[in-house]
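Request:
Um, any thoughts?
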Amino acid sequence: MSNEGLPTRSITINPSDLLELQKDVWSDQFAPVTLVMDGVEMEARLRFRGGHTRNYQKKSYEIRYGGDQILHWNAEFDDPSMIRNALSFRFFNMIGVPAPETRHMWLIWNGQPHGVYLELESVDNTFFNKREIPAQSLIYATNDSANFSLIDPDTKQTKNSLFSGYQLMKGGNATKLRLVNFIKRINRPVKQSLRVYLAKRLDVTQYLEWLAGAVLTDNYDGFDQNYSLYEHTPTGQYRIIPWDYEGTWGRNPYGKLCRNDQVPVQGFNKLTRRVLAYKRYRQQYRKLLNKLLASHFTVQVLDPVVEDIYSGIREAVRDDFTRKWPYETFLNEPQIIRNYIQERRNILKKELKQWTD
């Protein structure tokens, strides 16, 4: 196997440290490793990452190096195309929603080929500094309790903590309290006072742009988890960043073909319902969706993007025998994505015509 032109990352890990990691794949403990990246050898730390994918033979990793630098290496094991995350984040950046940069890479593990991975930029201080975005806080939505509701999705009872489902990444107790208060407020009755509060505490335009991206890509898992919230320092408003868009573009998170109408045009979660309860925001959102359907979300615009990503990994994927999907399936994926775009366009156009209130 060879990297076929992809950037190579090399990891050397002591077998005893690897065994320690493997004792509990759900642990977030790190192991010391030697990383060679871009021709530079350095000391680093590595851990397993992901949800159900931690049980897979080919795992995903988080790597920390150089003091505060973080990268995520996704095996993309369930996605036969290996590009759905990359395509989704490229699309979000195209429509003006900051999303992680990605690149495919070839991983060498203790001298042996480990196959093709997707390297994702971490959402952290470096992410914001690179884009010159002043952020006073950062919170990850890590499970489906991050639904902006007072009700636990599993027990159907009132949540023990309204911070359930979230992980504080930047900020302190005051940051957590502000989010808890935000959730309390948006769960109050829909009145003019709530619209005033939303306009003050939420960057509604940015939220609607994110909502449009999640709806267009049909990401069922992207509303109650798999996003990040940050408070924009100059305004104090919450903004949202997408994360984990593997289950999109016609396949679910496990790689199975699925219906292309999983997500309604109005999206999900309590915050989305509160925002779209106001006619002004509904009109703004419908105008935005119609604009994107005419400009960005077309086969003509996105097919070259798909081909650009595909052309860079096609030969490496052919030589990667660590993957669960056959190469023939990989080769058919661009057509599946093209079919998805056309069908999703038709679905959303029909729903928009019917959604006239």
Summary: The chain is about 40% helix and 20% strand. The radius of gyration is 21 Å. The chain has a mean pLDDT of 96. The CA atoms of residues 84 and 246 lie 5 Å apart.
